[in-house]
Design a protein that fits this description.
This protein has 366 residues and is an alpha/beta fold. The protein has 2 domains: 222 residues, Spore Coat Polysaccharide Biosynthesis Protein SpsA, Chain A (Alpha-Beta Complex), CATH 3.90.550.10; 97 residues, UDP N-Acetylglucosamine Acyltransferase, domain 1, CATH 2.160.10.10. The protein has 7 helices and 28 strands. It has a 7-stranded mixed β-sheet with strand order 5-4-1-6-9-8-10, with helices on both faces. Strands 12-15-18-21-24-27 form a 6-stranded parallel β-sheet, covered by helices on one side. The longest helix has 13 residues. The structure holds guanosine-5'-triphosphate. Guanosine-5'-triphosphate binds next to strand 4 and helix 3.
């Protein structure tokens, strides 16, 4: 039976405040929690047992899957203190059922949306009798990433820090956050301290001459760790740029059957509207995620933003690349600039924040 580990213990700090109460893999993406899309992909690849390596808000994973009745066994390896990506893998391996030292174990980061074909990745690993096979993806601008050059046979030559100069950009291949480990290699990761698989384990394996290979693909790939990547990943699933067996045919929007959307509104670009949300007249929602119970008043415009559950957006307010925490209230006629993050429960009065001037009379007596 093929087994897998999903790393889901990170705090997801770059997605705060969405991750203040919900771990990143449990955030809603294209109508389901992100981890459910990953589970569906693993099941399609024939995985029969998955271990969640949890730490931050660990109990919420068991809560999410308490009624899970499909043909997949789920185990939970809880870290009292986060062990880093390498330590987490080692700790989760305790719960794997297989005992063969050569068994291939699939490892997935819990925040990567990817079109990689997992059975092919496993096949390449077996063909090369590899110790570790990493999925590698190509990026147009490698400067923000550690690089993974390979030789003609796909063997990894080194793991390089983020390049600072054009000369240091020796490849456009980066670690795509999905691996196959030979079980014995996985068991050799130290168990008594925090370990980073990217910074310690992989470079040490290459330096020791172990068989570390890359499997480079051109398929869809996105790390959902930042707010903009998160909304884009969700929109890509809805519009069909990225695929998941949990999402229906490609469409402009995914509107929950209990949501109410005024017919004069436009919901586009792969936006999702959650359960019981209410979208008023002449509203524009583009490439955004609107959570459960959110109320958006008339003439508001929301672009590339996330509005978490039970918040409200006032009349004619404009949001662009904004993250609104849950139970927040944004009054009418606000104009919120890119990169703004609004804490859960915050209240912004009408015209409280604007990028451009307003013609409305000033309410203060001068
Ligand atoms: P940021 O805080 O925004 O960087 O997000 P993050 O905490 O998720 O960190 P990062 O994106 O670097 O983590 C990559 C993957 O590894 C994610 O799926 C995390 O959940 C997971 N991860 C990171 N650190 C740990 C850890 O100490 N334990 C476990 N179990 N998983 C981890």
């Amino acid at each position: 039976m093929q087994e897998a580990i999903i790393l889901v213990g990170g705090k997801g700090t770059r997605l705060r405040p969405l991750t203040n109460h919900t771990p990143k893999p449990l955030l809603g993406v294209a109508g389901s929690s992100f981890i459910r899309h990953q589970i569906a992909k693993l099941m399609d690849a024939g995985v029969g047992h998955v271990v969640f390596a949890t730490s931050y808000l660990a109990s919420l994973f068991e809560e999410e899957f308490k009624d899970f009745s499909q043909d997949l066994k789920i185990s939970y390896a809880v870290e009292e203190v986060p062990l880093g990506t390498g330590g987490a893998i080692r700790n989760a391996a305790r719960l794997l059922h297989g005992t063969s030292p050569d068994a291939p174990v699939l490892i997935l980061n819990g925040d990567i949306l990817s079109g990689v074909d997992l059975p092919t990745l496993l096949e390449r690993h077996e063909e090369r009798a590899a110790d570790v096979t990493l999925h590698l993806t190509r990026v147009p601008d490698p400067r923000a990433f550690g690089l993974v050059p390979t030789d003609g046979s796909g063997r990894v030559l080194s793991f390089l820090e983020k390049p600072k100069t054009p000369e240091e950009c020796v490849t456009d291949q980066i670690n795509a956050g999905c691996y196959v480990f030979r079980r014995s290699v996985l068991d050799a990761i130290p168990a008594d301290r925090e370990v980073s698989v990217e910074q310690e384990t992989f470079p040490q394996l290459v330096a020791a001459g172990r068989r570390v290979y890359g499997h480079t693909t051109e398929e869809y790939w996105r790390d959902l760790g930042t707010p903009l990547a998160f909304v884009h990943g969700s929109a890509d699933l809805v519009t069909g740029r990225a695929t998941s067996s949990l999402v229906g045919p490609p469409s402009e929007a995914l509107i929950h059957p209990t949501a109410v959307v005024d017919p004069t509104s436009r919901v586009t670009g792969g936006s999702t509207i959650g359960p019981h949300a209410v979208i008023g007249p002449h509203v524009v929602v583009d490439r955004s995620i609107i959570g459960a119970g959110v109320v958006v008043a008339e003439d508001a415009r929301i672009h590339e933003s996330v509005v978490d559950h039970d918040s409200s957006i006032g009349r004619a307010s404009l949001l662009r690349e904004v993250v609104v925490g849950c139970h927040a209230h944004i009054g009418a006629d606000n104009e919120l600039p890119a990169q703004l993050r609004l804490s859960c429960g915050i209240r912004i009065p009408a015209q409280g924040v604007r990028v451009s001037g307003t013609a409305a009379a000033c309410p203060t007596v001068h």
